[in-house]
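Hi L., both proteins are below.
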Amino acid sequence: MAGMKTNYLIITALESELKRAVLPAGVEIVYSGIGKINAVSASLKAIHQYAPQMMINFGTAGKVNPQLNGLLKIGKVIQRDMSTEPLAPRGKTPFCNKPFEYLSSGEFTCGTGDSFVTAHDPWLDAQSVDVVDMELFAIAAAAYEHQISWQSYKYITDDANEHSASDWQAKVHHGQDLFLDQLKQLLS
């Protein structure tokens, strides 16, 4: 498999979110599994395998901003579970000179962490986080490290509250068609 090239590489956590069979020709997809460790591992492996021009993350998200619904294009991602006070403020990795946020061309902010958000978190409001996920910060970090541009589209499945798990399971596959419309625009 080494040495394959693709312009567009999609990284999605689970096949239930986006089926390989519906993707246009010439677009590769890698399923990372859930969480930051799986996402960075899959991203680095895929970068070496495919040498993409652009990495596109599509996935589901819980909403923190109650006004939002549907498919959102993410413009900034931060790490919501890096919490090492007093060594560093929440969201920043201590003794690390890598960015604590990654930027792209969308308008919404995503907070990534290895937890399923089921309760209100005032820190997320203070950072103007719109949605929460479990992979994007790791994917964006891998892309940045290899000077690859990235985009992310998040489909809101739940309200990041006590009903999140059942809401997510019911709606995990609903964003696929909306994302495919965005992908077609990107490729045209």
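That was the first. Here is the second:
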Amino acid sequence: MTDLLTIDVSATDARERGRQYGEAAREHIAASLAFYTESMTRQTGLTWPEILDLAPAWVPVIEGYLPEIVDELRGIADGAGRSFEEILALNSRGELTKGNPFGTDRRTDDEGCTSFAMLQQANALGHVWAGQNWDLWDAIADTVVVLRIAQPGKPTIICHVEAGQVGRHGANSAGIALNANGLGAGFGTGLGVPGAFVRRKVLESWDMHDALDAIFGVRQSLSSNLLLTHRDGFAIDVETTPGRHGWMYPTDGLLVHGNHFQSFVPAQIDRTYKPFSVDSLYRTPRVEEGLSSLRADGTTEEAVQAIVQATMSDHFGHPNAVCQHVDPRRHELNRYSTIVSSLVDLTTGTYRLTPGLPCANRYQQAPWNLYDGPGPDDRPHVPGPAASLAAAR
């Protein structure tokens, strides 16, 4: 990988893992914080010092949900030469850029992503794939880093995140992939667990049960779409909200999700709901149509990669397309583009990314394989099916 910073983090101690990460990503974290200092102030109506004063209110909420992660945040701050409060705010940027999470205001800015899962029956090669176009503020495109996180007793994670964040999109050595999309609909009040920590806990899961439990066993303050894919040929999309959740499964092995509610509309907004990202209404079927050709034509890894790249480079509706380009009509702090396109082969463990627009950059393979880390058989204190059956006899 030549254009995205790759960082390999491995330590028994959580704070040391964070320090390694923060030190390696110091310049990227500084650039990210420079953007969010201005952006969060504009979105929340709070000054940056006020945000940093309020951010520690999240600590008890996070600690109760994901033990050790606060120590990792402190380590990132140590390594990057920043304050703990800054790193905490950076990992809560989804909540902070949708309004004042410490009050009742919520915004629904037009942020878009298009995610997909393809099971064996959806491609002639018979592999399981997961990926997405990650659309975010163009100004932070150069802050994206690719992390490999090895920690004791948990699957090894490969993920791509904004520098300084502990989770966003990725996959693990247990064969679980996670892709995420915004849904708008910020009708929640009070402090829930920020999305970055929910995603990290999903990526630390050994099996689909624990991954789903991480989603259904937490209260969030925002709505977010989480698409989970398992290498054994299972995928589920969960539309999470501060209230109830909705879910959907693949059709003929293919599942595509954008930025509108596709399985249900929450009762809290049912009478007034409009998709906050209207281009999602055409991005989703465009990707479904493009990827459907893989059933006949996806006979090799090269063919799959080429078809996925062409599909995720679609410019229908340009600049607000599957491959999103900057729209100059928007405020300079609110200009989006596809900053990364990902393609993960859960069958072979290859993790591919485009450093920027997929129409202009080829997928590049990360320097690690997912399955170099511990697999389900290495899970501590949980016997496998064969061992359990033998014990029962």
